Each structure stands twice: as C-alpha cells, then as structure tokens.
Amino acid sequence: MAKIKTKWICLNCGYETTGYLGKCPDCGEWGTLAEEKLQKNDKKKGLTVYTGFKSEPQLLKNIQIDDAIRFSTGLSEFDRVLGGGLVKGSLVLVGGDPGIGKSTLVLQSSGNLAKKGIKVLYASAEESSAQIKLRASRLNIDSENIYIYAETNLDEIQVNIDNIKPDVVIIDSIQAVYNSGLTSSPGSVSQVRECCNILMNIAKTCGITVIVIGHVTKDGMIAGPKVLEHMVDTVLYFEGEKYKSYRLIRTIKNRFGSTNDVGVFNMEDNGLVEVTNPSELFLAERCESITPGSVVIATSEGTRPLLVEIQALVGPTSYASPRRVATGIEYNRVLQILAVLEKRVGLNLSKHDVYVNVVGGIDIQEPAADLGVALAVATCARNVIVDPETVIMGEIGLSGEIRSVRQLESRINEAAKLGFKKAIVPKASLPLKNSPNGIKIIGVSRLIEAISNSIPAKEEVGIK
C-alpha cells in the first residue's frame, strides 16, 4: 500500500513545509500550520475542466472594448465601491463578519440584475434553497432569472454553469465549497486556493462575472492565505458596528476603479437601504449644546468626502503613567499629535489622561484628521468650545506646521451643503478654483493659529 504523503500549510500566509513547526517562518504567526494530504483522487467524471485562458495574442490597437462591459447592480453605493458597476469576466471577493449582511447585499443585487434580464446563478454552500427563498421573500425578490442551487461540490456547480450559462455566478461561501480532486477538507488552504483558481478561470474564459463571499478570521482578515486576495480582481470588506444599523462596504483592492472607496447602507427590515448622504448620518446625533472637546472634520474615503465628529476627553490621571486611548484613529498618530501640542503649543498633558473617539464607528486612516484631533484635545483641556459651525481639516507636521490635504474643494462643498459657515484649512492648499458661497474659508499655516481661529472671539484659550 502506497504511503500517503502529507504537508503542513500555514493558514495565514500559505507557507508550506514537510514537517510541523510551532511558528511559521514566513509570517511569524504561532500555531497556524495545518496538516494536509498530498494524495489526489483519480475519479473522472467527464466534467468540463477550465484549464486557463483561450485567446491569441492581439495588437493593443486592435482590441475592441464592448460598451456593455460594465453593468450596474441597481445599488448606487455598491456600484461606487466597484468603480461604476460589475465588470464582465471579473472575480469579486466580498468579506465581512458573520451576520453583517453579505448574503443580503448580493441577493438584493441579484434581484436588481434579474429585473434587467441578466441571468444569475446563486450557489449556496451554507444555506438550503428554502432558507434563501425566505430571505428573498423578505426582500421582495421574485424573478425567473435567478437560479438557486444549494451545493458544496464545485464540480457539480461547474456542470450547472455549463447548462444554465448564467451572466453572474455567486458563491456563498468560498470556504464551504470543495473540489473533489483534493482530499483535504473544505476551508483548508489547498481547497480555498484551488477553488478560487477554478472560479477565476471560469470568469476569464467564459466572460462570467463571479462574486465570491469569504469568511473572516477573528482579526477581521479574510480567512485563507493572502494569495486568495491576489487572485481576485476586487476585494470588498463589509463593516459595521454590532449595535448600529448602518453598514460600510469598503474597497481594499480594485483593478477596475479606485481603492479605499466606501459605500454606506442602513440595515432595515426590508434589507439594506442606501445612504446617499452619509455625512448627515454621522452627524445626526450631534448634541445641540456643544461641549468642549467636540469638533467636526472633513475626511475623505476614496473620492467621497465625509463629515464626522471627533470627541476628546482630557482629565487628571490617577495612574503613574497617564492613559492614552484612541478609537477610530491610529493610536501612534494620536501620540504624535499630543507630542506636538506639548512642544509647539505649550499644552502640558503629562499628568492627564487623553481619550479620542471618532463618533459613528468609522475608522479614519488619512492624516487630514490631525488638526481636528489636536483642536479637540486642546479645547477640552482648556474647557473652551469650538465654534459649532466650523469644519476643520489639515495635516500636522512635527514642527507644528499645517500641511495641505487632497480634494479640499470637494470637502468644503460638502460642509457648505450641511450648513457650516466657516472652514479652517491649510493655507498651502489655497486659493481654490471654485470657492462655494455661504462659507468663510480661513487658511492657517501653524497649529497655534488654527486654535485661535477655531473658537468664538469671546472665549479665551489660555494656552501659551
């Protein structure tokens, strides 16, 4: 009897070795190596095998692009993060926490596509056909162009793709389907990688758009090796607070559009509802009686400007080392801003705890929020109020200078639409080509200058 060979594969990065190791040499994670068999089945089922692209080399100038190569999902927020809609022959990966709304999103999109005559095959490896029918009834989806197929074997799914010849295929989820040619269990690194490779070849060879739903790990990353994200054309993350009704879908990778874009939805009884003006959503619960330490900043997610509230709380510490807590913004960035406040402005925070929070649960990555964080901390420390009709944006350098930000004009236009009367912006970004009416623009070049212009004239800052 032939000896069955095995190998050990890292579940985090896909590193392979012949023996067990406690720590992966490639990614440095502990306890992530899993054993898999190398033996393959020799079954021949007569299925269509997609071995790769079938095309001849062409001159670039002779390649014709179809006008209908991109089509809308019927959800403008979903189209935004996709770069304008789904592209024919593309492979899209949608990840997110359990119960966040991934299946609801793709099913709603399927209903909109079916109304346009686009044929959709929904292959579910985790739910029965009756369960999907219940969700579709709740979402008021009933179309003759949607085929529901509850199956975990990717070979059988291929057979139905050949028979039905759909325009869009949905796999829910990639960790639950398996290829019978491999002996490893569903969800293993080998199965996920092989199944994704087969789906990629189906998409590129047949011109079928494939949407794949992926599970996430406890760290919030898509389960399986990073090679899964490298193989697909678009990677989307579905995010949302557990106790909030709104959902964010964020672009991480997109070969057909911009990255780091974001779409906003609100989860209701009849499904996901688009939020066309997310700034109103994030500022809806802002207190009418503004307290010290509260400011509104204009951030940007991809091509979309967003107005969000930043709150800071500063108080005497009871610990030997003061606490620094940052929610929604990078922790090290907050420490850098506090150091600039102490050195360049003279605000002593060595005996005070500092808490910074981005209201609404959104994560801000760009440095344009620096000035808003600094003003929130400074005004809370001195118990003064920032003018509630002021919006703030700017990056802070280590010498206390205010650096320019991108897309300044669109940020100011968004603030003007929501009724803000004053904007404190970097002087280096001025002048604007088209300045909006009804909002006063103040350019500042130093942090202390921004603090002086952010509070009403009757207040006294009390900072050196």
Q: Care to describe what's here?
A:
By secondary structure, this protein is an alpha/beta fold. The protein folds into 3 domains: 6-37; 71-276, P-loop containing nucleotide triphosphate hydrolases (Rossmann fold); 281-454, 2-Layer Sandwich (Ribosomal Protein S5, domain 2), CATH 3.30.230.10. The chain has 11 helices and 23 strands. The protein has helices at residues 76-82, 102-115, 129-138, 154-164, 189-206, 227-231, 278-282, 331-345, 370-381, 408-417, 447-454, and strands spanning 6-10, 16-17, 33-37, 70-71, 86-87, 91-96, 120-124, 146-150, 168-172, 209-214, 234-239, 246-254, 262-268, 271-274, 294-301, 304-316, 324-327, 352-358, 390-392, 395-396, 402-403, 422-426, 440-444. The strands form 5 sheets. It has a 9-stranded mixed β-sheet, with helices on both faces. The protein is globular and about 70 Å long. The chain starts with 5 loop residues before the first strand and ends in a 10-residue tail after the last helix.
